[in-house]
Amino acid sequence: MNIQTSAPKVEVRLGFKLQGLLIAVLVGIAILLIPTPEGLSTKAWGMFALFVATIVAIIAKAMPMGAATLVALVISGLSGLTPLSPAKGEVGMLSGFSNATIWLIAIAMFLSRAVIKTGLGKRIALYFVARFGKRMMGVAYGIALADVVIGPGIPSASARGGGIMYPIMQSIADAYNSKPGPTARRAGAFLAIAVSQIDTIVCTMFLTAMAGNPLIAELAKSQGVEITWMTWFLGAIVPGIVSLILLPYFVYLIYPPELKDTPKMAEMAKEELNSMGKMSQAEWILALDFILLLLLWTVGDLVFHIPATVSAFVGLVILLLTNIMSWKNIISETAAWDTMFWFAVLVMMANALNKYGTISWISTHIADSVGSFSWPVAFTILVLVYFYTRYFFASAMAHISAMYLAFVAAAIAVGTPPIIAAIGLGYTSTLSMSLTQYAGGPGPALYGSGYNSTGQWWGVSFAVSILSLAIWFSVGGVWMKLLGWW
């Protein structure tokens, strides 16, 4: 018997968007054609051109971020900008992959999958909505409390806001027949923006609440500033709590829902909790593991000096030993491995820019433009410019990678205390995520629900951003003064 087999046909398509890639290439070539500025080496200028071209490719969505950084990695190796075996004064092509911070964010993403897989995150959110959900503001504050509880262990604003809070917000709107269109302002329009603002604040409060925060901590090291999990949390806790109290209420005042009382929602949340039954053994183990991690990240950091990455490994091993997460679950968590890859390449490129003198050169020019002011005024100007340039970025990572290091160096150059410069701009990186529906986090999902127009989203978010910055400058500034940071 003759068995004929034929290989499946593979359709060959381009793995990139031609227009976006062409723009990135042309930008890189244009920079290279400019004579190397005085004070920079050819290698420094070449790395700058490659870095800018990579960021442009990411912004233009020429390729997935991992693929774009892989292309940049290969070019940097072939061109000798980052040799595989670096000599003294050079940065190695694969140096980013040995970075402890990269492993911290990947492990935290593995842990976040367990929170969603076991249903613990949903249970926590429903619990707080059931307790406080009899009024619309109570619903918002219930969501805020739930986000604070699960925030440290889920380093993805999209996973928390879009994966856990968004379905609950949608069910509330549906329960009161609030649909996109004429009835949007009944409940859905307010809740969509409120959830986005709340998630942004929680991202700012914990180092492990968003993937960009560990990148900020890593970049700050190049300026001699060590930001641990506890340092980040300590600086953010007071202005963060004030923001969680005031900002949702401010949204309620300037963009009020038509419905004020929502007793049906509290009952629905209780019914859903009852249908979930008692906490499973897996949920209990995960909850205790979560508490252990928080203790290690706080007390362990302060007293025993246990690195946050080592603590994260401990938490992951517990989940593996109890089979809450199997090894198959780990290796199939593509988002975490993808994040690890582009994170490593961006860190490598940022380190190269710093080591080759490019960051110092850029920061000197930025500092010169505000150098006539006292450091508080100069730092305020830098923060405002850094914050509102987020309108031009559809990726938190692109914004941080492109601007953070140069602005921190410039802030330090004009006399800003290093810890204030590094952590202040770090908080700014995350707070600016709430400006637009495309700036990151759950914005695309919440805006995509159709309850708000672009004008409504931008108008309310801009008004909130003014109060948010005022809180972090005033309350945050006084708090950091009490901490002895300036």
Spell out the key features of this protein.
70% helix, mainly alpha, 486 residues
Distance from N terminus to C terminus (CA atoms, Å) equals 84 Å
Report the helical percentage.
over 70%
List low-pLDDT spans: none
Order of helices and strands: HHHHHHHHHHHHHHHHHHHHH
SSE layout and pairing:
Layout (H helix, E strand, L loop, with lengths): L17 H16 L8 H18 L5 H14 L21 H19 L1 H13 L3 H15 L6 H19 L12 H18 L6 H10 L7 H26 L8 H14 L4 H24 L3 H14 L5 H5 L2 H22 L2 H13 L4 H14 L7 H18 L4 H14 L11 H6 L5 H29 L4
Helix pairs in contact: 1-2, 2-3, 2-15, 3-15, 4-9, 4-13, 4-15, 5-6, 5-7, 5-11, 6-8, 6-10, 7-8, 8-10, 8-19, 9-18, 9-19, 10-21, 12-13, 16-18, 17-18, 17-19, 18-19
Textual characterization of the structure:
The chain is an all-alpha fold. It has helices at 18-33, 42-59, 65-78, 100-118, 120-132, 136-150, 157-175, 188-205, 212-221, 229-254, 263-276, 281-304, 308-321, 327-331, 334-355, 358-370, 375-388, 396-413, 418-431, 443-448, 454-482. The longest helix is centred in the last third of the chain and has 29 residues, at 454-482. The mean pLDDT is 88.
Quick overview of this protein structure:
The chain is mostly helical and about 475 residues long. Helix content is about 70%, strand content about 0%. The model has no long low-confidence stretch (mean pLDDT about 90).
